[in-house]
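Any chance you could type out a protein's amino acid sequence plus the matching backbone structure tokens because I've never seen that pairing?

——
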Amino acid sequence: MEVITVRNFRRRSIVGLILGLCVVALFGYAGPSANAGGSPPAVRPAGIWSASLEGVHGVAPDATVRQIARVSVSGSGIRLRFGNPFGSSPVVIKEAWAGRPVAPGSARLMPGSNKRVTFRGARSVTIPPGREVVSDAVSMTVAAQQDVAVSVYAPGSPVNDHTFPPFAYDPPASYIGTGGNTASAVSDDAFPGYPVIPGDTSSTATGYHPGQTWWLDLVTADRPAARGTLVTLGDSITDGYNAYGPPGQRWTDVLAERLDALPAESRLAVANAGISGNTVSVQPNPYDPTNQCCGPPAPQRLDRDVFSVPGLRTVLLLEGTNDIGGGDYAPPASAAQVIGAMRSIAARVHARGARIVASTILPMCNEAGSAKENTRLEVNRWIRTSSVFDDVLDFDAVLRDPADPTVMIADLRTDCYHPNAAGDQLIGRYIPLHAVLG
């Protein structure tokens, strides 16, 4: 055995230092090993914005659509995902660009910010029916709560879209241009803000479309200022339907701002996978016999809308209202049907190594003692007591009227199913951060 003396220890140290400096000179310093004690974890890609696609409605005109997505955390190395899950023919993106608007919700871009989007180096890409594509990284950095404008020219392609009526000029939104390929334009001259097309209307008309996006369903960052992503899986309440009035934010956006106040190594980005009219159980959609209005039932869209999101850490589930309420094309669901669906979703999330948090179902204006109200109460009792979920959020307790627990507090709702912006603000601030962070 060699005896290491002070002299040969020093000699080895000097030689090691020289070799180390040579390595640095050749390859650059990579920082401490990820396995070194006390070293920061490696930065991994994360989803920083999403808007789940819900159906296909017509074909794109010979015009460019400029879509506005507001990211939940800052990041760089931005990648865009475009999908054609519902089309019967290919989506052909002839050109796409990504830039930063000069102001929130604006179609005018900051000078020099608009960058060409490529796909494995190509300027165009074809997306077959049922498939999706992810772009190459765009060399841009975005700040938390900052908009990204994604301009796409894909004339004649089936419009796979997301639609809901949001608050005023709060993204997501899109501007459909006056005609032709104007994706590279920094100006908003080709993207008029009027007329304003209602967000719940699938339309290809020129103008401003609050709440509508085409093909774009996910924005990721190779280097996010977050340790992972929280995906909110839900229906119109998560989507932000009818959250009108000040302060004009969905509860998911309120939560994202709270998370963004944490140190980057602690926070999660928020990706909103809410679709208005969605159901938690597999059944015909209560509102649309074509199944094009409201997305596939939650269990059938887990792979695309949840599990494929980079950096998934936690799923927040808020569904069941549409199942219990029923409609012209599906009867009200039983408690067993809703509970069975929630249980299966939780099992699949846990199998992926992620956490799942569930919220109780909000009041729906069903008379006390009625079948629908009894179903809602039974499901809520199960959510609170089953121990299936890693944590439980009691939105029902937060918004129900103490004088009549079958309805939400009048000042916090827009109709029987939906909170207004004040209601969204309340539940967004109520959520204990440890529940979603784990």
